[in-house]
Amino acid sequence: MVSRHRHGTSELAAHGKARHRAPALLRVVRRVDHTGNLVVLTVAGDVDLSTLPVLEHHLAAAAPQNMIVDLDQVGFFSVAGVSALIRASGHARAARRHFAVVASNCPAARVLSLTRAEQSFAVFATVPDAISQLS
Q1: Cα(first)–Cα(last) distance of the chain, in Å?
Q2: 75, 100, 116, 133: most buried, per Cβ within 10 A?
Q3: Cα separation, 68 vs 102, whole angstroms
Q4: STAS domain: from which residue to which, for each copy (predicted)?
Q5: Is residue 106 within 8 Å of residue 80, measured between CB atoms?
Q6: Could you tell me which of 6, 60, 50, 4 has the C-alpha nearest to residue 26?
Q7: Band (64; pLDDT cuts 50, 70, 90)
């Protein structure tokens, strides 16, 4: 069992010795549908305190449109990421825009479930499911 120390770049293995790991990376791909009114952000990598500003930047940049955030390629998802999604959802609601998240069988899905984030925004199993509901 490995417990992660998220404030640095080391992990503490079960035997108590620290292992160093590469800094977390986050990649966000932005796709706009043919109408220009729906943005799909596909997020890949780890969402933690070190990568949160990247996620927040992309959420803010996509805010004028209806938005789907696809988290299926996320390896680690912190509660700070949930907070960022809840804030983005609130901004979308205030602007009368749709906001949805895609997360199925991935670490983000478990965190979203444990934090009951679905009370703040819709969570779908696939991007096509989300698109059909937002159209």
Answers
A1: 44
A2: 100
A3: 7
A4: 28-134
A5: no
A6: 50
A7: confident
φ/ψ of residue 8, rounded to 5: -130, -160
126: tokens are 């696939």
Q: Torsions phi, psi of 117, nearest 5?
A: -65, -25
Q: Which residues pair with 20 in a beta bridge?
A: 10
What pLDDT, on the 0 to 100 scale, is given for residue 129? Answer: 96
Question: In 3-state terms, what secondary structure has residue 99?
Answer: strand
**C-beta of residue 49 within 8 angstroms of C-beta of residue 81:** no
What domains are defined for the chain? Answer: 23-134 (3.30.750.24)
Identify the residue whose tokens are 């670490």.
107
Please give the order of strands across the beta sheet that includes 99-102. 26-32, 38-47, 66-77, 99-102, 122-124
Burial bucket for residue 76 (CB in 10 Å: 0-12, 13-18, 19+): middle
